[in-house]
Predict the 3D structure of the following.
Amino acid sequence: MKIDRIGSTQLGPSFPYLILEAGVNHEGNLDRALEMVDAAAKVGAPMIKFQSYKADSLASRQSPAYWDQTEESSDSQHALFRKFDGLSVGDYVTLAKRCRERGIEFCTTAFDAAFVDGLAPYLHVFKVASADLTNVPLLRQIGSKGKPVIVSTGASEMSEIRNAVSILEEAGATGIGLLHCVLEYPTQPKNANLLSIKVLQREFPDYTIGWSDHVKVTHGGASVIAAWGLGASIVEKHFTLDKSIPGNDHYHALDVSDAASLIEQLRYMSDLLGSETKTCLACESEARLQARRSLVAAREIECGTFITADMLVPKRPGNGISPERLDDIVGQVALRDIAVDEMIRCDMFEHANHAHSLEVVGKGKLVV
């Protein structure tokens, strides 16, 4: 089942649902996390999302790094996660309340049972990280909360995605979104493989499809705009207050200025895209009237003349008889003299079949 709504926001093709992924770019500092909420709300993002975990329950001390260590120097996952796992369930509740005050949706990727249970009352939708796509116990617990679930699909096979969807639905998830994602930090543009969005749409037509972006912010957020153009209804992009801070997810994230610029571009694109209709728009009505053509007399036409096609020519403006009605006029009889270049009107003619009182006096010409 698709996710039709998140909180008060209706999802649809006219604008992508942008999730600003704060993750742990607050670096374990609650005040900084609150500042991130305020900043995300100010730029107009519909959602800010965090990551809630404890290093000891997430990774063993022997878990190796798998990111670009020139950007993030930690030599193990446990060491990295330990740096930023200082926030408690209560702290995230504080963030959820600040989100409500600021009019922005709160979300978190809950990586263990304690955070799932503790934060479920504050979430309209859950998020599952790519790495937990096969974490059956966590999927069942999250699904049992009876809420929509957004799942990232980085480094996954199609069979694993199908299995995760099945588990979540059987557990009680009320809607599912699947985000194309690449687990390369940062993702090189040549590896983004955005056409996979189309694959997910074909394979999962009954679910909401999106894009979780780890590409560095270049070319005006082109990766996000391209993903939306390919049909991504949800777009997730990392967010930071300062991209110059070394390590973690700062180096491939949007900062406040980037986020404001991206949202402005998306709004502009939304204006450009319009709606899935094809009709004359209100803004075109005057141009339609003036630029379309009407039938006018190509030469002088005497009263009583049978009208032939060569007597008429289409010319602007279009407030007369349209050239598409040419065949309706040909064969009719002029009821009066018509000057050259005069616009043709219906009251100038009587159809030949009704001209019983007229007498033929010459080729193609009738008189009373």
About this structure: The chain has two domains: 5-273, 282-367. DSSP finds twelve helices and 16 strands in the chain.
